[in-house]
Amino acid sequence: MSIDKPLHQLGLAEAARLIASGALTSEALVTACLGRIEAREAVLQAWSSIDPEHALAQARACDAGPPRGLLHGVPIGVKDVLDTFDMPTEMGSSIYKGLRPAWDASCVAMARAAGAVILGKTVTCEFAGMAPGATTNPHDASRTPGGSSSGSGAAVADFMVPLAFGTQTGGSVLRPASFCGVIGFKPTFGTYNRAGVKFAAESLDTIGLIARELDDLALMNAVLTNSAAIAPAFPQTRLRIGVCQTYLWHKAEPASRAALERSVSAARDAGAHVEEFVLPPPFSQLTETREILNNVERARSLAHEWTHHRSQISPALTRSVELGLATSDDQYRAALRLAEWCRLELDTMFNSVDVLLAPSANGEAPEGIAYAGDPSFQGLWTLLHVPTISLPAGKGPHGMPVGVQMIAPRYGDRKLLDAAHWLIARAGVHGQME
Amino acid sequence: MSIDKPLHQLGLAEAARLIASGALTSEALVTACLGRIEAREAVLQAWSSIDPEHALAQARACDAGPPRGLLHGVPIGVKDVLDTFDMPTEMGSSIYKGLRPAWDASCVAMARAAGAVILGKTVTCEFAGMAPGATTNPHDASRTPGGSSSGSGAAVADFMVPLAFGTQTGGSVLRPASFCGVIGFKPTFGTYNRAGVKFAAESLDTIGLIARELDDLALMNAVLTNSAAIAPAFPQTRLRIGVCQTYLWHKAEPASRAALERSVSAARDAGAHVEEFVLPPPFSQLTETREILNNVERARSLAHEWTHHRSQISPALTRSVELGLATSDDQYRAALRLAEWCRLELDTMFNSVDVLLAPSANGEAPEGIAYAGDPSFQGLWTLLHVPTISLPAGKGPHGMPVGVQMIAPRYGDRKLLDAAHWLIARAGVHGQME
């Protein structure tokens, strides 16, 4: 096999194949990624901790040993709310400066057991919330990369690493993917085991993936679900797409509306059945419902930090905890029940369509890095526990990436990856960074 | 207020009232509990770590300072799978000997913020699973106290501490409560925040409480749900009880059958409406379904330990991980879906009754301490995510305690505590240790 691009631009699956074939060493690949980081990190600030020697040592161990699994020798980034036994886990908070957990988070351990090199930890907003770090958008350093998986989005988009883990409680995987022009995937709630994750809000927190290529998500999905690696395939029947503007359509900027419309037209032209998909009235409470759960559960999960380290908690998170503490348990339980009702209703509504298309985010990445953007368009689906993916779908008026979001029913993760493959390959929605 | 019993026998709510009134100091209470431990721990082996000086320092700080909350000055025990920042958290595994987490688990932090003294950590089976520690049953040291919250059950039953935290993935709170003759309460899944819990199986793991008195559970429940403290009250309407033998009735020993029958008769005599409650056929798959989820999720949550410390994992847990790794993701997802279907079906079935009565466990605590007993009668309800409580309901042929289990619909936690109060006060089911 010959390699027709700079090594740091290789995708995860492609690199794994090259390493397995002997055409590439893990050390060469990791060296290339570290070189890219060396060149660009001063501007991007995507990594909260990275130790080149440790990364190279992992790579050399892969090269020296027998194949360990599907990810043998390929580097990945890990959002810094996921525990790693050999690197700090600081969670974007000064409270945990230098903390070294005793273990790897489940997803990190499973990736490592499959041969992955943990390249480093990527910058997260404070406790996967709203207060961002210093990361900038690779397309324009004056703009946010989105959050809270800020470093994972920026590092993947800037070709520093082919894939990175994120977590999504509101829109923390899909929004940075959309803003940075890469693919973000949040599986069905509960799919990737959460042992070793610092909880933000446990009824919402979902581990997800950011990558440049769909095959790479499918490969990592196989590893984290202990399944055979099967590349996405075209759906066997005509794809039925529901176009879901959602009750948030008034927040969609022209760039996001146009991206959705272009994607829908392309899908129709390529042969999909397309129909309008309207969420019934109770769904319009889901944004507020998600905020209730988020605030109450954050207040509880941060009870220790609230007692012992309150002065080190940001004003934004302080506000969230205070709102959570002021919410009655009855309100909290009512929010849980409404969310469950909507999940079951949506299950039924999916009888008439295979997947939905919806906006990924309000629009392009906003200017400045102090605000990581509005999580509404992603948070709705997070609360509904459905698998969802953001695909790059063109540029907005400022030349920044804009995404389109595809959603499948709960447990329809494979179906979602297949439909996304079809949308990219047959309907020509970009599906990867320009 | 005068105190009419030895201090170590005080309940949590009673002690909190006495401390608040000035009739008792935290130091005196903690000293009494430590004295009981000193006298009995050689036989019971209920504590994995306890530091009397540290416990007394917490007590003195309470006595010296302003009231902190509902639990001001009262001691509690904490199962050793729950993180504590000031004590080791070893999870019943030699892998984590001496581990000191950076934080308190959410429930520990919330209890501390309400004024509780963390007396020490209680013995758990290995990673809250099947391989027990050295704890013995306070009623007969040749018998198991049950598990995996072995130390919490034994310490509370032996009057070492008025209340202790446990976790239940199968039957790990209710079975030790039943075997030790105390009350075990597992709230609706997700009720007590799980930040800082080492996951066994995250779709099942539920933090629960073990105490000698119902009021004590209600008080701690208020603290952990950030609610006002309201003692259990009689239901306002005639209690409708469904008698549920379950598909496991063939496993119920005569002692458990008799305990259920006595409780039902007493409830009927006291005025409850009683009817038979039969679980539909799909429910009979729930024991196997729970095992699938347990094995798959344990295999994933222990991925780090499996890679790095496999020789320190017990044969029983090794078998569980191996079964989990051999289970396909499709089987796993089918198990999740069946469980959800049964939960919704049970919601509907609860239209005709307020609570169910069912066996707590197979029977009396088995002989020996190498096997912590069969989790089937508790695990069914754990998987269904419903709140459930085990009440002492007499003795078996060996003079060992036998319990009866009461179950309410999901989110009906308060209703359950009220119905249990009625059953104890009006129907005369013991409700506390003899």
Quick summary:
Helix content of chain A is 38%, strand content 14%. With 434 residues, the first copy, chain A, is of the alpha/beta class.
Can you offer a commentary on this structure?
Two copies of one chain form a homodimer. With about 425 residues, the first copy, chain A, is an alpha/beta fold. The first copy, chain A, has a domain of about 220 residues: Amidase signature (AS) enzymes (Alpha-Beta Complex). Chain A is built from 14 helices and eleven strands. In chain A, a hairpin with a 5-residue loop joins strand 10 and strand 11. Chains A and B meet through helix 4, helix 9, helix 10 and helix 12 of A and helix 4, helix 9, helix 10 and helix 12 of B.
Q: How are the SSEs placed, and which strands pair?
A:
The structure is a homodimer of 434-residue chains.
Chain A: H1 12-21, H2 26-44, E1 47-50, H3 52-64, E2 75-79, H4 106-113, E3 117-122, H5 150-157, E4 163-168, H6 174-180, E5 183-186, E6 206-211, H7 214-224, E7 240-243, H8 254-269, E8 273-276, H9 286-301, H10 303-308, H11 315-325, H12 329-349, E9 355-359, H13 376-383, E10 388-395, E11 401-407, H14 413-425
Helix pairs in contact in A: 2-3, 5-6, 9-11, 9-12, 9-13
